[in-house]
Write a sequence for this structure.
């Protein structure tokens, strides 16, 4: 593979409660000698995005998530292992899904096709690069991984880079019961929806960004 721009590493921790396993991530720390240390400030230094967004109105607080026919399956800052769906915290009713190779947000309801409901359902397993974090596997066997800052579906090629790219460490999100998903090998950068896709970005400190980077983990209806 060509050189990948995302090289830093971070670690996490596993919580086991009852019969349900959760993954959560403490403050990131260096993983290998010579690697750049993860920021220790209360807010990470924003990292540049590969694309820019047009100026818009002043950010506002994300609206509370509307009731869902299925309840959240995560507690603050954790993601339960097993079949899960990720609902956008600031766009209730829209879930992480995919078209072709790229992840995006899409609506799904009880009346949606079996294929549509399957596409918003991922099997959460212990992180491929760090079992204290998590990895998401789609029904077709591919995994969610970031590649050139965009979230996509890829087949495991057995490389260390793939395992790092497919490992995400959860922390509490902007909405109660939600999570943000930090890249294991890119400390300070999180997944957020924008421009029709889901990207890996450094926070700009706004409430709008925090809402876009927060997801509510739900037990899938399928």
């Amino acid at each position: 593979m060509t050189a990948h721009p995302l090289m830093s590493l971070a670690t996490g921790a596993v919580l086991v409660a009852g019969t349900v396993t959760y993954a959560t991530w403490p403050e990131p720390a260096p993983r290998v000698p010579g690697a750049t240390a993860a920021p220790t400030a209360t807010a990470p230094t924003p990292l540049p995005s590969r694309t820019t967004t047009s100026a818009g109105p002043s950010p506002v607080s994300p609206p509370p998530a509307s009731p869902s026919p299925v309840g959240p399956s995560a507690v603050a800052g954790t993601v339960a292992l097993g079949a899960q769906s990720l609902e956008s915290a600031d766009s209730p009713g829209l879930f992480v899904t995919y078209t072709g190779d790229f992840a995006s947000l899409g609506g799904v309801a009880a009346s949606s096709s079996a294929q549509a409901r399957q596409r918003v359902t991922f099997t959460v397993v212990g992180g491929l690069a760090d079992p204290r974090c998590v990895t998401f596997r789609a029904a077709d066997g591919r995994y969610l991984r970031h590649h050139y800052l965009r979230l996509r579906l890829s087949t495991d090629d057995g490389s260390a880079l793939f395992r790092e790219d497919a490992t995400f460490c959860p922390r509490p999100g902007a909405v109660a019961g939600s999570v943000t998903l930090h890249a294991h090998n890119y400390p300070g950068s999180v997944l957020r929806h924008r421009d029709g896709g889901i990207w890996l970005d450094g926070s700009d400190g706004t409430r709008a960004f925090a809402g876009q980077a927060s997801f509510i983990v739900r037990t899938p209806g399928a």
Summary: The helical segments are 114-119, 160-165, 207-212. The first strand starts at residue 13 and ends at 17. Residues 1-20, 26-71 have pLDDT under 50 and may be disordered.
